[in-house]
Amino acid sequence: MNVKVEKKENSVVEIEFTMDKEQFNLELDKAFKANAKKFNVPGFRKGMVPRQVVEKTYGEGVLYEFVIENTVDEAYRTAVVENELDIVSRPELDIKQIGKDKDFIFVVTVCVKPEAKVKDYKGIEVKKVSTRVLKKDVDEELERIREKNARIVSVEDKKRALKNGDISVIDFEGFVDGVAFEGGKGENFELTIGSGQFIPGFEDQMVGMKVGEERDVNVKFPDEYHAPDLAGKDATFKVKLHEIKEKILPELDDEFAKDVSEFDTLEDYKKDLNKTIKERKENSAKAEKEQEALDKFVEKVEVVIPDGMVDEEIEKMVEEMNANLQYQGMNIDMYLQYMGLTLDQYKAEMRESATKRIKLNLGLEAVAKKEKVEVTDEEIDAKIKELAAQYGSGNDESLLKNENARAYMKQQLQNEKLIKVITDSVVEK
Fold first, then answer.
1. Which CATH class is domain 151-248?
2. pLDDT tens, 24-58?
3. Phi-psi region of 234 (alpha: psi -120 to 50; beta: other; left: phi over 0)
4. Distances (CA, A) of 351 to 148, 150, 307, 311
5. Which of 32, 60, 83, 285 is the most buried (most CB within 10 A)?
């Protein structure tokens, strides 16, 4: 088979294959013999129908599909290997010519990985993030821990009005234009006033209610509400308050410190919190610095990314999202329904992120060539063993021999090294 590879603009490659008519006719013979038992013609035993009768009965092109299945994929894969093409998109097949006593000509169009250029990737300027711990940081952390250790008690005074911070136990039912809507009803529901859990304005209108009181709460659903049939509409909720609960916070003293920590005094506990908050701020600042540096690094990457490569990256991102959702007992279809999006709309929204992710990876590859960054087999082995121990899989031996796992780990380790090259040289201002 004759193969001609032609590089087009934007990393698009056309591979033209020509199978001469003699070979094509031989392939038709092979296809007929391999599939003879599939053809049923009255007056002939199964598998004994002559080829000319099959073609007359089913049409001349009946065997073409078999030839295409048996030859196209293998020819394409061989051409990719022999021409060392780094494919980054799904192949598109175009049959240019096919027919008995004709050359069989077909073209496969693909996108190959483009080569990126990146200059001045060292010394990127980023905003300096303060890691100083203020007194209010410690106070806020103490308050959060007090909230976590609060006791929830029922308010016995039935005349006491509902206020911000209280936990209300309510029945509610929502109506739009006087008609109850699906999902708008609840019984003995616990709602913390001021939490923002319900539609804006709902909780505010409940403030002042007393146990046993019924009240109409009038709200408007946000225009971007996840249920399209309710978005932007006015609604009335009939609410009945059954019970008011309040939080009783523990006193901020040495006893509190003993209860929630290993320290005997509140002062020692505060010092430890100061240290913990400092570490947290330093880690956050490091992550923020790294993200800003990578965002600015991507802007320096010069590359034309073919649409097919972006399409392929979007498909990967959809698969990743679906896998993550499945861990939460959902799937991509359920998520899209909740968000009020079609799959095409979701993919369109992901296009910018996919393009940015590709630019980052191509830019890092360009840096790897300049910096001659490599990952050793010993580093891959160590990382696999570390992760196996961390997650308690106990299968590190099989993973060590798994080529896909090793290739993935090699890429991850190389990216870590490359990102370090960039972030270690940043200038904080």
1. alpha beta
2. 999 988 888 888 888 888 888 777 888 888 888 88
3. beta
4. 41, 46, 10, 8
5. 32
